[in-house]
Specification:
Layout (H helix, E strand, L loop, with lengths): L3 E11 L2 E7 L3 E7 L5 H12 L18 H6 L4 E9 L7 H7 L3 E3 L5 E9 L5 H8 L5 H12 L4 E6 L6 E2 L2 H4 L2 E6 L5 H6 L5 H9 L2 H4 L6 H43 L17 H7 L3 E3 L5 E3 L7 H17 L2 H4 L6 E7 L7 H16 L5 E6 L2 H5 L6 E7 L2 E5 L6 E3 L5 E3 L1 H10 L12 E5 L2 H13 L9 E5 L5 H5 L13 E6 L4 E4 L8 E2 L12 E4 L15 E5 L8 H8 L14 H12 L4 H7 L4 H12 L7 H16 L2 H17 L13 H11 L3
Parallel strand pairs: 3-13, 3-14, 9-12, 12-13, 18-19, 18-20, 20-24
Antiparallel strand pairs: 1-2, 1-4, 4-6, 5-6, 6-7, 7-8, 10-11, 14-15, 16-17, 21-22, 21-23
Helix pairs in contact: 8-11, 8-12, 17-24, 19-23, 20-23
Length: 700
């Protein structure tokens, strides 16, 4: 069956939106973003149009409240919500759908485009009176008070279809063709499943019972009806026996139960409630508890089910019901044509491992055509990371206004000649590595990207040493594991459309390296800063230039930070270079700790460079350090700097990557706790990291 889907919504003056347009996809639409960016309001706007149970008449609180006084004086505020429906690619529309939307169409050629526009407004007849009254308002508060006291009660709502200029109002029948199911974040699933007149479970069972007969294409409708009714009779006969047995056992208890009814006057007209009568198959099923067969094969009743299995069961029942509702054979012309499911914050009810199952479950249902379109709002990084980039819509606040970003649409570069280069490999890379910790970048207000675990662990502590708080500034530190910044930066490049315009700092290493000349297949190998350019006849030299184009002043919202060009190498090297006397660096798992301590003592005592060089143990690496330091000369390499370089080189060779950073982070934290007391030791945060943190904490 071909179909149409909701392809776009434009909202004006509704709740937190002054004016926004959001594009949707056929299938899954995951709306993510910070709190109060308006994710739920977007779903509510859809519900106003498509959910028959939602209130169409709004209140003063539903109108965007930041409209300027000028604008309020020029005309009464109006809420409008416009939804476009597009024909799905590669699908032809069939009878039912086309009939439903025929008078909604704004484009009569394929692909069809239909439109529905909801408005909440002051009728024209009152506009003059409104303008006269509002002129007296001195400020916005007064203006809103006038509207609240005198005009909001006169507001009306209308929903137009097709071109709104034609003023064709929507009719209930075609609106009823939409099956818009809205699951909000707070709900009592068990109540929804089992109780009330219209229990979900009962409806679903009524439909699926005898499904083998109902779906048997070889039977005529009459044969189907006949076979089902003979099954029903059989069931009634056998269940009657069961009921009589039950009543027998309840006889004396019945009196006891009914005495309560007497007591509260529930019996009147001499009739008393009694437990008898028939039982239908679906009621019997509803009474029997739904059992979840877990992998262990154990059966547990639904009421003591943790982890959110109930919610998955509930959603599968709901999808089953949507299938019931869109079954033309079962419901005839009352069948729904557009099943749409909107789910708010599924993580409120699902354990993280279930969240992954949940997305998989939805995808399967869409593929099986059980539901056409799903809208989900979420803060969950688990849900985000298990969703395709193309299905994600990110709402974020920019200078108080809600903006929209489509992470799946940003992977391309525009060359100077205007041609476009597709970056499909970067998109694949980001999709693959956007796990639960990294997908946090899509929710953060500011991001510091780093190359490794050490920076990730230490930068938050460095910020504390600087009296800055990453939390208060909503900054996330995200480790991309190596020099892969570029791939992720496509998401945030403020010079392009569809991106999340955020402040991004990239903290990267200089990584000096050299390569032997005149040697076949020679590769660049890491070297020390003091070895750079010392022997140009024998070596070619290079630094990491990957992020040069993001240096200060070169990009609107992305900036790179790295160590000094002459003295820098890596974070660990820099820590020791800037803290050449600090025993805080000597962590329990550090190798060569005795040697490092002895070298630090010599610096403490102001001993000359020669003594430090003598102290270096005889190893190939140490000979290399001595040799290179002797060769490096000039103003840049005075003895004091060379001493720092010795400590830095030895420290770098002594640290194991992750473990050391973990130990150092806890030592630095403990040290900070005694700030202002006797044992506190000063610690120098490397300049390039200091600059990055300061730039991130600036309010602009």
């Amino acid at each position: 069956m071909g179909h149409m889907y909701i392809s776009k919504i434009s909202i004006e003056n509704y709740r937190n939106f002054d004016s926004i347009t959001v594009d949707f996809r056929d299938g899954i639409n995951l709306l993510i973003g910070q709190n109060n960016a308006g994710k739920s309001n977007l779903l509510r706007a859809l519900a106003i149009i498509f959910d028959s149970s939602s209130k169409k008449q709004l209140s003063i609180n539903d109108i965007y409240n930041n409209i300027s006084l000028e604008e309020l004086k020029s005309r009464s505020p109006k809420v409008s919500i416009t939804v476009s429906l597009s024909q799905s690619e590669n699908e032809n529309l069939l009878g039912d759908e086309l009939v439903t939307v025929s008078n909604w169409l704004v484009s009569l050629e394929e692909p069809y485009l239909a439109q529905v526009q909801y408005e909440f407004f002051l009728p024209e007849a009152h506009e003059k009176k409104y303008k006269d009254r509002i002129q007296g308002a001195a400020n916005k508060e007064e203006a809103w008070k006038i509207i609240t006291d005198n005009f909001i009660r006169l507001y009306i709502n209308k929903t137009w279809v097709g071109n709104p200029d034609n003023q064709v109002q929507i009719d209930g029948d075609s609106l009823n063709k939409f099956d818009f199911q809205f699951l909000d974040a707070i709900r009592d699933v068990e109540r929804d499943m089992f109780s009330g007149k219209n229990t979900l479970l009962k409806n679903v069972i009524d439909f699926f019972i005898d499904y083998d007969i109902k779906s048997d294409k070889e039977l005529t409708e009459e044969q189907q009806i006949q076979q089902i009714s003979s099954r029903k009779e059989g069931f009634e006969t056998t269940s009657q026996v069961l009921l009589e047995k039950l009543q027998e056992r309840l006889k004396s208890g019945n009196k006891e139960i009914l005495s309560y009814a007497d007591g509260i006057g529930a019996s009147f007209d001499n009739s008393e409630p009694d437990f008898e009568g028939k039982i239908t198959e679906s009621e019997l099923y509803s009474v029997l508890q739904l059992i979840v067969k877990q992998n262990t094969g154990m059966s547990i009743p639904i009421s003591n089910n943790g982890l959110g299995y109930n919610n998955l069961i509930f959603m599968s029942l709901l999808l089953a019901k949507m299938q019931v509702d869109s079954d033309g054979k079962y419901l005839g012309s009352n069948a729904k044509v557009f099943p749409v499911l909107a789910i708010e914050e599924p993580e409120a009810h699902l354990h993280p491992t279930m969240q992954f199952q949940f997305i998989k479950f939805l995808k399967n249902n869409i593929n099986d055509k059980k539901v056409k379109q799903v809208f989900i709002t979420s803060h969950s990084t688990h849900i985000t990371s298990s969703t395709q980039l193309d299905d994600i819509i990110c709402l974020y606040k920019e200078q108080g206004k809600t903006e929209v970003s489509y992470p799946g649409k940003v992977f391309f570069d525009i060359n100077s000649d205007g041609t476009i280069e597709n970056r499909a490999n970067s998109k694949k890379y980001v999709q693959r590595f956007l796990d639960a910790t990294k997908s946090n970048m899509l929710f953060s207000e500011k991001v510091i990207f780093v190359e490794g675990i050490a920076e990730q662990l230490l930068i938050p502590i460095f910020a504390d040493y600087m009296n800055k708080s990453l939390e208060d500034n909503h900054i996330s530190v995200i480790n991309v594991g190596g020099r892969y910044f570029e791939h992720f930066l496509y998401l945030f490049d403020g010079n392009k459309d569809n991106t999340i315009k955020r402040k991004i700092a990239c903290v990267t290493d200089q990584d000096p390296a050299r390569k032997e000349k005149n040697k076949e297949k020679a590769k660049f190998k890491k070297c020390y800063p003091f070895e750079m350019n010392v022997d140009p006849s024998k070596y070619d030299y290079e630094l990491n230039l990957n992020m040069v184009k993001y240096q200060k002043g070169k990009h609107a919202n992305i900036r790179s930070f790295t160590q000094d060009e002459i003295y820098g190498k890596t974070l660990e090297y820099q820590l020791a270079f800037d803290n050449e006397k600090s025993r805080l660096l000597i962590t329990p798992s550090l190798q060569n700790d005795i040697e490092l301590d002895e070298l630090m003592i010599l610096i403490d005592q102001g001993k000359p460079l020669s003594e430090l060089l003598d102290k270096l143990r005889g190893s190939d690496e140490n000979e290399r350090i001595k040799d290179s330091l002797n060769k490096s000369s000039g103003d840049a390499w005075i003895d004091e700097i060379k001493k720092k370089a010795i400590i830095a080189s030895r420290y770098l060779k002594s640290v194991g990557k992750g473990e050391n950073a973990l130990e150092l982070s806890s030592i630095l934290r403990e040290n900070l706790l005694i700030k202002g007391e006797a044992g506190f030791q000063d610690f120098n945060v490397p300049t390039y990291i200091k600059d990055a943190i300061e730039w991130m904490c600036e309010s602009i």
